[in-house]
Every structure is written in structure tokens, then in C-alpha cells.
């Protein structure tokens, strides 16, 4: 079964084939469940002109935010962008193209893309700028807007555990967008906290089957806290 082993030994191998002007779908929500090492590898490669699809763009100096420092992102498709001053600066200056997308719609765009569904109708965004220029149809007397799904050249996700065949388990809120993102990449790369042998993961607990995954790498995570809130004694 050696041919099914998807583990690679370097971040260079993990992101091999990433080129300028590609689309990258990234799992994570804020700084929770983000593939930190894979994002750093994109920065190190210097790949430019990227369209990045993710819930948000990290923060200044960490997560996807580091890709803004050298202006590697051409377009950001996201649902929330409020934690990054450099993002705001590049948006207002016209250096960064931004497509704001309702959060549930963004998740469904990834899921539908991974399922081979080219577009879907949703009531979210009807009557707002989100629906401008898009097809509107009525179902059961209610308006729905047609939203195209998303498929990326690469999808990068973070797992709690993955086996060598690419089967993945996510942990608690770090699951967030990762399961949907994992299905929507032509090449999906998993950065895992722990890589186990096939058979060690309980089949009923697997969130992403290995059929969606092309590469797995053992990650080293800093796991920053985005906003630390403490209560006085």
C-alpha cells in the first residue's frame, strides 16, 4: 500500500506546483485552525497575483496577513476583514481587489465546488449589493440569488490528526472552514498536528476522506491567540 502514502517531507514538496495567478482556498477562521506552515511557504516562494479564498485574511504579521506584506494577494474572497490594518490600507488604495461574501454563502461555495455543483441559489444577499448583476429566481414565492461555486488550484487546510492516506480529523472549533476547503482544491494539502498510521483513526470519526487529499505534511504550529480576554480576580 506504499503507493497510497501521501506524506511529504518538506513544505517545498507540499506546495510544489503553486504558480503566480493561481487560486488558493485556505481553511481557518481568524487564527483558529489555519495551516500556518503552508501559508509561510507561500510567502517564502514569493508567488504573486494570487486569488485567496478564506473566511478572513489573518492579522497583521500572522496567518494570511503575511502574504499582504509583499503584495502577493491580488484578490481576496472573504466574509470578514476587520482585523488587519494592512488589508484595509491596500483595499482603500486599490492595490487589493476584495469580494465580500456572506459567511454561509462562502462555506457553501466551497462545499458545492467540492461536490461538483457549479452554482446554487440562496436567499442570502437578495436585495443587497451582493446580488447585483446576478441571476434572481423565485421559488415558493421567495427570491433567491444564483451564486457560483468555487474550486481552487490549491486548497490548504489544517487537521488535528491525519493518516498517511490523507484521512483527516479536525478538533473542535478548528474544524470551521477546513472540511469544505479540503474538498474544493484540485490539489489539497493537509498540514497536520499529528500524522498516524492507517487504521489508527476511527472510521466513523473521519471528517475528510483521503480521496480529497493529495499531500500531507507534519506541521509545527505556533497557535497564536487572536484576542486574549482575561477576567480580573
From TrEMBL:
<dbReference type="GO" id="GO:0016740">
    <property type="term" value="F:transferase activity"/>
</dbReference>
<keyword id="KW-0808">Transferase</keyword>
<dbReference type="InterPro" id="IPR012792">
    <property type="entry name" value="3-oxoacid_CoA-transf_A"/>
</dbReference>
<dbReference type="InterPro" id="IPR004163">
    <property type="entry name" value="CoA_transf_BS"/>
</dbReference>
<dbReference type="Pfam" id="PF01144">
    <property type="entry name" value="CoA_trans"/>
</dbReference>
<comment type="similarity">
    <text>Belongs to the 3-oxoacid CoA-transferase subunit A family.</text>
</comment>
<dbReference type="InterPro" id="IPR004165">
    <property type="entry name" value="CoA_trans_fam_I"/>
</dbReference>
<protein>
    <submittedName>
        <fullName>CoA transferase subunit A</fullName>
    </submittedName>
</protein>
<dbReference type="InterPro" id="IPR037171">
    <property type="entry name" value="NagB/RpiA_transferase-like"/>
</dbReference>
Amino acid at each position: 500500500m506504499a503507493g497510497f502514502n501521501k506524506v511529504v517531507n518538506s513544505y517545498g514538496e507540499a506546495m510544489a506546483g503553486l504558480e503566480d495567478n493561481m487560486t488558493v482556498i485556505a481553511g481557518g477562521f481568524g487564527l483558529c485552525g489555519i495551516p500556518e506552515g503552508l501559508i509561510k511557504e507561500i510567502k517564502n516562494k514569493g508567488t504573486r497575483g494570487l486569488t485567496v479564498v478564506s473566511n478572513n485574511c489573518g492579522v497583521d504579521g500572522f496567518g494570511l496577513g503575511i502574504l499582504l506584506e509583499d503584495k502577493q494577494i491580488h484578490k481576496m474572497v472573504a466574509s470578514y476583514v476587520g482585523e488587519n490594518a494592512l488589508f484595509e490600507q491596500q483595499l482603500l488604495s486599490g492595490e487589493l481587489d476584495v469580494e465580500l461574501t456572506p459567511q454561509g454563502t462562502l462555506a457553501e461555495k466551497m462545499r458545492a465546488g467540492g461536490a461538483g455543483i457549479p452554482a446554487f441559489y440562496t436567499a442570502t444577499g437578495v436585495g443587497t449589493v451582493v446580488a447585483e448583476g446576478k441571476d434572481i429566481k423565485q421559488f415558493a414565492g421567495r427570491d433567491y440569488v444564483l451564486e457560483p461555486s468555487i474550486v481552487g488550484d490549491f486548497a490548504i487546510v489544517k487537521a488535528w490528526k491525519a493518516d498517511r492516506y490523507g484521512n483527516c480529523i479536525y478538533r473542535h472549533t478548528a474544524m470551521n472552514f477546513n472540511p469544505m476547503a479540503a474538498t474544493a482544491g484540485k490539489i489539497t494539502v493537509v498540514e497536520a498536528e499529528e500524522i498516524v498510521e492507517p487504521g489508527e483513526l476511527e472510521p466513523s470519526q473521519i471528517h475528510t476522506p483521503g480521496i480529497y487529499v493529495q499531500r500531507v505534511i507534519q506541521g509545527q504550529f505556533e497557535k497564536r491567540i487572536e484576542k486574549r480576554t482575561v477576567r480580573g480576580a
